[in-house]
Write a structure and sequence with these properties.
heterotrimer, A alpha/beta (256), B mainly alpha (327), C mainly alpha (295), B: 327 residues, two-stranded antiparallel sheet, 15 helices, C: 295 residues, mainly alpha, ABC transporter involved in vitamin B12 uptake, BtuC, 2% strand, globular
């Protein structure tokens, strides 16, 4: 059974169709990518999945439950983690605290517990620290736990954002262009991290322009063009699909 | 380890600070003690406002109304219903919190300037109600002969004794504030202040977090109002106007909204200045207005926060010059 | 009898509302150029009235000259305000800007008190104080003047924004500052113009009501709140909405004060403000013209 199932999703902005009649599914433990030329509507799809925008039509099902009308924070609590194309870290916090902040999704206490410092708070705090340590280790940032997040170089910022998403204890993480702006060494670290995540039975859905990365690590690919799905399948088949070549690979000037 | 030691130092500092404050009545005369009591009352409101402004990133220009609501609730309940003032102060705090909740529920959907105006409007309406609901509130004349607080047979009508009550209330509200700030709650708030979209993506219910802080700040304001009413034993609507709301916000920003303690120091500074310059009030207000502008331009994080940052840099430089110190 | 009473409410309301409209326009202009609310807007009104008093009564200038001089002084004040306070806060958080304009309002208010004292002052009516009679209701020439000048300003502003280069540039900068900058429009300059404009509008409102109300240094706060309520009612970004908001607020207020109780008159504008903010923050007349959501 699919972990995430999108059916008939549509969204337009002021008459312009950003996404139209999009359906696909992500199986548990898969690494799946959404690719497409610039402006194909990939980030819009992410924002629809996470609830930043409400869809005009269609449904998003997660673990068998319709989450289409839920607020972003509720989806996060249910197990949909995400990162952002323009990395939105909390720069004033330490690396560790960025991830600890995210444990809000899985470890919630009522306000009075914090206000009066009930013992449960200290217990939860220990668990948060453990979760953070584990997530940081997974992406290879365990040595930088105490550094201010604002001091990290671009590649590690991406990794930290992934670790933060892991802090929510997600079943699926949505990564929005995780390799954008990274050099080769950094991309390699990213690749390792994504595989390590999958090895922890966390499903990965990513939007990515780096074709090398996508072809190498993904099990399946969805190709979007102008908001509509034009192909879906394993990397080898996608590479040979005529429509994909025409829409995407055939226009090399388009990919970043 | 290092974090633990820092926490220990922080708590030690706070305990020593309160010890020092507790000995103030030995040194200060009655006039200065009166100012100390007023400072304490303002500090309690400012703790809540600093959580609201510095951590939740929201603003309120109506807290004088909530302060007044606490004062009136406690005054009315203790004079008309003859309830124990200790109880009525708590009732006033809770009612002000409830009012904050009800105001915040719709108003916190607004942002920035819109929220400022909405809370300002709510505050002014509360003040108008204190005047117009004269059957309960005594109208423009207010309520007098509010009973003093009592411990057993000891009546706390002396400033020196009342100071300890206020000090205890300050300590409790500081404890509560720090519990919020130095916990996951504080982390979630800072996340939200940093970026609401990112905060939501990690499961922070931003609307609820804002409402929680707004309500808590209402409770603090109401508590302060009750303490004020039973200290002066007389209240009138004039004491709860927009200019006080503005003064309170000014205390927070001049002190530094992103630290509860710095905001408290801001409250002390502005209370002293406004009491000291009471006789030259006209001129002092001109400077007050101007200094708000100047602080926003040159020290937007607040005087005490910026000073602390400079001090920290200086210390770091000295330490560096002397070579690394094992810490 | 009833008709004349209703008519009287409407006349009083429209005349008061025209003043609110002028103040509201000031809020709208500044909000459009800089996305801030100027808490010192009411002080522009008061200083306008007070300065006119000084030029006319103390300096014995002819009335029209005194009025224009007052408006000019306040306009320059608006420019100085923008250059010395708003411009340095270019990258500041909205909380800082709120506090800074509040600080300016306190500064200007108490400054006015030090210059003009605590006494309320008033100007003579521009065209005499003999009321006209319309179907049992009365209207003062000064009120007619206020309505007329508001009309002239509204039409003038529309022409300015549609026909002049500066006006078009201001409009463009307000709708899309980034694009306007790329087109070579200096949006900082536009912010300065908008402060000059709204200060001038405030001063016009101030000199126009100076004959009708006793004005003192502290009158600005209430006028500011009413102007702001009117602007919010009209959608804050929409000049035409601000005018309609001002006129409706004036009428609501005079009807409310007449029918319910004059004690609550001060609360009416606030209640309107809160209701609009909480129910429909984009304003009742917000559909016309540019639309921008609460930020």
């Amino acid at each position: 059974m699919a972990l995430l199932k999108v059916s008939g999703l549509a969204k337009s902005f002021g008459g312009v169709k950003a996404v139209s009649d999009l359906s696909f599914a992500v199986a548990p433990n898969q690494i799946k990518a959404i690719i497409g030329p610039n402006g194909a509507g990939k980030t819009t799809v992410f924002n629809l999945l996470c609830g930043v925008f409400a869809a005009d039509a269609g449904t998003v099902e997660f673990a068998g439950r319709n989450i289409s009308s839920l607020a972003p924070y509720v989806r996060a609590r249910l197990g949909v983690g995400r990162t952002f194309q323009n990395t939105l870290l909390f720069d004033e916090m330490s690396v560790e605290e960025n991830v600890m902040a995210a444990t809000e999704a899985g470890l919630r206490l009522n306000a009075f517990a914090y206000l009066f410092r009930w013992p449960a708070v200290a217990r939860a705090e220990r668990q948060r620290r453990e979760i953070a340590a584990e997530a940081l280790k997974l992406v290879g940032l365990q040595d930088k736990a105490r550094d201010p997040a604002g001091n990290l170089p671009a590649g590690e910022r991406r990794l930290l954002e992934i670790a933060r998403a892991l802090g929510t204890r997600p079943e699926i993480v949505l990564l929005d262009e995780p390799a954008a702006g990274l050099n080769n060494a950094e991309t390699d670290r990213l690749k390792h991290a994504i595989r390590a995540i999958r090895d922890r039975s966390i499903t990965v859905l990513l939007v990515e322009h780096d074709m090398g990365l996508v072809m190498e690590i993904c099990d399946e690919i969805v190709v979007l063009d102008q908001g509509a799905k034009i192909a879906e399948g394993p990397p080898l088949l996608i590479q040979e699909d005529d429509r994909v070549i025409e829409a995407y690979l055939g226009r090399p000037a388009d990919n970043a | 380890m290092r974090a633990n030691r820092r926490r220990l130092v922080n708590w030690l500092g706070i305990v020593c600070g309160f010890g020092l404050l507790a000995s103030l009545p030995l040194f200060l005369n009655d006039f200065l003690m009166t100012i100390a009591v007023v400072i304490g009352i303002n500090v309690i409101i400012v703790f809540g406002l600093s959580l609201l402004m510095g951590y939740a990133g929201q603003i309120s220009l109506g807290h004088a109304g909530l302060y007044g609501l606490g004062a009136y609730t406690s005054a009315v309940m203790s004079t008309k219903l003859h309830l124990d003032p200790w109880l009525t102060i708590v009732a006033g705090a809770l009612l002000a919190g409830a009012a904050a909740y009800l105001i915040g529920l719709p108003a916190l959907r607004l942002r920035g300037h819109y929220l400022a105006m909405a809370t300002l409007g709510a505050g002014v309406i509360m003040q108008i109600m204190f005047v117009e609901l004269s059957g309960i509130t005594g109208g423009p004349a207010g309520i007098s002969s509010i009973p003093n607080l009592k411990i057993g047979h000891l009546i706390l009508d002396q400033t020196g004794a009342y100071f300890y009550v206020v000090l205890a209330a300050v300590a409790v509200s500081l404890w509560l504030s720090l519990n919020v700030v130095r916990s996951q709650k504080g982390r979630a708030l800072r996340a939200m202040h940093g970026n609401e979209l990112a905060a939501a993506s990690i499961g922070v219910d931003t609307a609820r977090a804002k409402l929680f802080i707004f309500t808590l700040s209402g409770v603090f304001a109401g508590l302060a109002g009750g303490l004020y009413a039973h200290y002066l034993t007389y209240i009138s609507p004039d004491s709860f106007g927009t200019s006080l709301s503005i003064l309170l916000v000014a205390m927070v920003v001049i002190g530094g909204s992103q630290s509860v303690v710095a905001a408290g120091l801001g409250a002390a500074l502005l209370t002293v200045i406004s009491e000291y310059f009471r006789t030259y009030q006209d001129w002092s207000l001109v400077f007050f207005g101007l200094s708000l502008v100047l602080v926003m331009i040159f020290a937007p994080r607040g005087l005490f926060v910026e000073t602390a940052a400079v001090a920290k840099r200086l210390v770091a430089r000295v330490v560096k010059r002397r070579g690394p110190v094992e810490s | 009898m009833l008709l004349s009473k209703v008519l009287q409410f409407v006349i009083t309301g429209v005349a008061n509302g025209a003043i609110y409209a002028l103040i509201a326009l000031g809020f709208t202009l500044i909000y459009n150029s800089r996305q801030i609310i100027n808490f010192a807007q009411g002080e522009f009104v008061v200083i306008g009235g007070m300065a006119a008093y000084t030029f006319y009564v103390t300096a014995h200038l002819p009335l029209p000259v005194a009025l224009l001089a007052a408006i000019l002084v306040v306009t320059l004040l608006g420019v100085a305000f923008e250059r010395f306070v708003i411009l340095p806060l270019k990258n500041a958080a909205s909380i800082s800007l709120i506090i800074a304009t509040i600080g300016m309002s306190i500064f200007l208010r108490t400054g006015a008190m030090l210059i003009w004292g605590k006494e309320a002052m008033t100007l003579p009516h521009f065209f005499g104080d003999k009321p006209w009679n319309i179907m049992g209701a009365t209207i003062l020439p000064q009120q007619i003047f206020i309505i007329a000048i508001t009309l002239v300003i509204v039409v003038g502003m529309q022409l300015f924004f549609r026909l002049t280069v500066t006006g078009k540039a201001m409009l463009a900068a307000s709708m899309n500052p980034e694009a306007a900058r790329l087109m070579g429009i200096r949006s900082e300059r536009m912010v300065m113009y908008s402060f000059a404009f709204s200060a001038a509008l405030g001063a016009v409102a101030g000199v126009s009501i100076a004959p009708l109300v006793m004005m003192s240094f502290g009158s600005g706060a209430a006028l500011g709140i009413k102007g702001f309520s009117a602007a919010i009612l009209g959608g804050l970004t929409n000049p035409l909405g601000a005018v309609l908001g001002g006129l409706s607020l004036g009428v609501i207020e005079s009807v409310g004060a007449g029918l319910i109780s004059s004690a609550f008159k001060e609360a009416i504008a606030l209640i309107v403000l809160l209701m609009v903010l909480l129910i429909k923050p984009s304003g009742v007349f917000g559909k016309i013209g540019t639309r921008r959501h609460a930020r």
